[in-house]
Amino acid sequence: MRRKVIILDPAEQDIKEAIEYYNSHSRKAKDDFLFVLDVTFSLIGDTPEAFPFSYNPVRKCVVEKFPFVIHYFEEKETIYVLAVFHDKRNPGNLKKRFKV
After folding, report:
1. CATH homologous superfamily for 4-88?
2. How far is CA 88 from CA 18, 21, 77, 91, in A?
3. Which DSSP string do the residues of 37-48 spell out, in sequence order?
4. Burial tier of 34 (Cβ tally within 10 Å: 0-12, 13-18, 19+)
5. Quick one: DSSP state of residue 63?
6. What is the CA radius of gyration of the chain?
7. What does the pLDDT look like over 7-35, one tens digit per residue?
8. Handedness of CA 17, 8, 68, 43 (dihedral sign)
9. What residues contact residue 94 under an 8 Å CB cut-off, 6+ apart?
10. I want to staple 30 with a disulfide (CB 3.0 to 4.6 A). Which of 23, 58, 74, 100 is the partner?
11. Are strands 78-86 and 4-7 parallel, antiparallel or unpaired?
12. Where are the alpha helices (DSSP H) in the chain?
């Protein structure tokens, strides 16, 4: 059963920044990023337990073909996305979001 995936505001901002970056390079890069992100969110919704913990209870899923990691936690039937984090950014900034 696919769980509902809710993208929280900080993760939404991460996505917007990535879209702006890829769009500035090419529309195809932006479209590819959005497609892969959508597929990854579907995968997380289908099998959230398949991915390792980054900081318990937060799990992480590496985005294929792009240098991003999605951090999320589940609560009952819902997945909450905390971050779509570029893997070259300072991970210390990420811990601030993990007060779940």
Report:
1. RelE-like (3.30.2310.20)
2. 13, 15, 31, 8
3. HHHHHHHHHH-G
4. middle
5. P
6. 13
7. 999 999 999 999 999 999 999 999 999 99
8. negative
9. 71, 83, 85
10. 23
11. parallel
12. 9-25, 27-46, 92-95
pLDDT of residue 87: 82
Residue 82 near residue 97, CB atoms below 8 Å? yes
pLDDT in tens, 72-99: 999 989 999 999 998 877 666 677 666 6
In this structure, are residues 44 and 5 in contact, taking their beta carbons and an 8 Å threshold? Answer: yes
Across the strands, what pairs with 78? Answer: 4, 75
Query: Domain residue spans in the chain?
Result: 4-88
* Separation CA 42–CA 3 (nearest Å): 9
Q: What is the pLDDT at residue 1?
A: 78
Q: What is the pLDDT of residues 31-74, one digit of tens each?
A: 999 999 999 999 999 999 999 998 889 999 999 999 999 999 99
